[in-house]
Each structure stands twice: as C-alpha cells, then as structure tokens.
Amino acid sequence: MSADISVDHVVDTVHRLHEQTPLVQCITNYVSMDLAANVLNAAHASPAMVHDEREAAEMARLASAVVVNIGTLSPPWVTGMHEAASVAAERGIPWVLDPVAVGATAYRRETTNALLTHRPAVIRANASEIVALATAQGAGRGVDSTHDSTAVVEQAQALASATGSVVVVSGASDVVTDSVTTVIVDGGDPRMPLISALGCAATALVGGAAAVAPTPLLGAVAAMAMLANAGERAGRSAQGPGTLRPALLDALWAQRPEDLRDVVLR
Ligand SMILES: Nc1ncnc2c1ncn2[C@@H]1O[C@H](COP(=O)(O)OP(=O)(O)O)[C@@H](O)[C@H]1O
Ligand SMILES: Cc1ncsc1CCOP(=O)(O)O
Ligand SMILES: [Mg+2]
C-alpha cells in the first residue's frame, strides 16, 4: 500500500460523503444515466443528470463536482460538456472525464483531446481506453477492454504526468495514479464488467468522492474501494450480472465507512 493513502483516509472520505451528500452533475450517456444516478444515490451523494447546452454551465455553478462521459456523444452535448467542464475548472471544483471507447472513432479522440484542455481532476477509464489515450491509436473492443489494468500501469502514470490528472484504470484490480503515487485497489466480483455502464457509474462515484476528499487521488481511491467492497459483498448472493446489479446498489447503500477496512490497497 502507498504510504500516502491509507485505509483510514478511505474510511474518512466515506464518512464525509455520507455527511455532505455532494451534488454531482453528470453529463453521461443514455445507457448509464439510470445506473450512475442510482449508484450516487446509494452512496449518499445527490445526482443531477443535466447536459443541455442551455443549462449545463448554470448547473455546474451549483454542483460540488462535474462528471463528463462521452459514451453517446453528439455536437450539442459536446457544447454542454465544454461549458460545464470550463465552469468546474474556473470554480476549482473537481471534474471527472470518462473517455468511453476513445480508441474507436476519430470523433471520440478529437472530443477527448479538446475536453482535456480543461484539465480534469480525474480521468477514469478501462485499460484499453488508457492504451488508446497513451498511444493515440485505436484499442479495445468498442466500449469494452481487451487489456488488463495492471499491464498498463506505466501508460497510466505517463498519462497522469502529461495531463496533470489523476488516472484511474478499472479492472480486476483498479489502478489509481497521479504519476508520483500509485495505489492498486483489489476486490470486487468478476461479473462486474458484465453490468453495462458500471464503469460509467464508477466514474460518477469518483466525482462524488472527489467532491468531499482532500485530494482527487484520495477521492478516486475511495470511490473504487467502495465499489470493490460493495461488489464483493453483492457477489455472495448474486446468481449472475442481472441479480448482481440490484445487489450492488443495496450493498452500497448498506455500506458503513468502517466496512472499507476490509478493502485491500497495495
Ligand atoms: N474482473 C473483475 N473483477 C472484479 N471487479 C471488476 C472486474 N472487472 C471490472 N471490475 C470492476 O467493475 C467496475 C467497472 O469497471 P470496468 O468494467 O473496467 O469499466 P468499463 O465498464 O468502463 O469498461 C469497476 O468498479 C471495476 O473495479
Ligand atoms: C454500451 C455503451 N455504448 C455506448 S456508451 C455505453 C455504455 C458503456 O458503459 P461502460 O463503459 O460503463 O461499460
Ligand atoms: Mg467505460
């Protein structure tokens, strides 16, 4: 475990999340809106799925964190993304980028590069998306990863160094790095990647935890630890991804800050 981030810090961050119930503005894709909102609610945060260019900036002035996800993007949405990210950067609140399937199309690559100019506090992606960002080449199978998170640690660190963002690579083990400190969060359930949009929901939860944590690095570790712990608990009763999904929401809602002491950080 990194000396900079301990389980005590994670427990404290979950306490803060429960106490502060931060308002998290999510500009996220059609697939993920429901699950991301419910994951935030279960984790005691307050979601608002507000993306239109006529109101995205105004909402970002009220929010404690902004989440931008390019999963089902189109030009009017991209305008709203820029407006919200720019207000977040101006106000000094964390904003989190999820570059869904960034290796798949030129439009996704161009949009992601343009959004990166607003300097996200955190980039949360799967391993193939990190490879695509680090190498500027296509990688992955659409929205799904074909790489292991622990095989791309150096690329994640290089991306964190180049962007100034904390980088989270999700997978069987989640890698969280600011390029100087790297923390690996183990746990979860192997059926979690079969729940569509759980990665997007993880990104939303990173936004919620980053809103209350002293640093984006700690917020990102805490969010991934919450999901790993809840996923593992939910997996004990689930019969497949269908029953894992509601069980995961229930486990997140029932999660006490002290439960995070079970999570393995290295
Ligand atoms: N093999 C696995 N075992 C346990 N947890 C996993 C596994 N793969 C992914 N997860 C968890 O599932 C969630 C979604 O991650 P992932 O599937 O990598 O994102 P995405 O949907 O963006 O590809 C994260 O909380 C991650 O830790
Ligand atoms: C299937 C799909 N297609 C466009 S966005 C999306 C959801 C992807 O969600 P996740 O990356 O969390 O699996
Ligand atoms: Mg994803």
From TrEMBL:
GO terms for biological process: thiamine biosynthetic process; thiamine diphosphate biosynthetic process. Keywords: ATP-binding, Kinase, Magnesium, Metal-binding, Nucleotide-binding, Thiamine biosynthesis, Transferase. ATP binds at residues 124, 170. It catalyses: 5-(2-hydroxyethyl)-4-methylthiazole + ATP = 4-methyl-5-(2-phosphooxyethyl)-thiazole + ADP + H(+). It comes from the Bacteria. Substrate binds at residues 49, 197. Pathway: Cofactor biosynthesis; thiamine diphosphate biosynthesis; 4-methyl-5-(2-phosphoethyl)-thiazole from 5-(2-hydroxyethyl)-4-methylthiazole: step 1/1. CDD domains: THZ_kinase (cd01170). Its cofactor is Mg(2+). Pfam families: HK. One of its GO terms (molecular function) is hydroxyethylthiazole kinase activity. InterPro entries: Hyethyz_kinase (IPR000417), Ribokinase-like (IPR029056). This is Hydroxyethylthiazole kinase. It comes from Aeromicrobium camelliae.
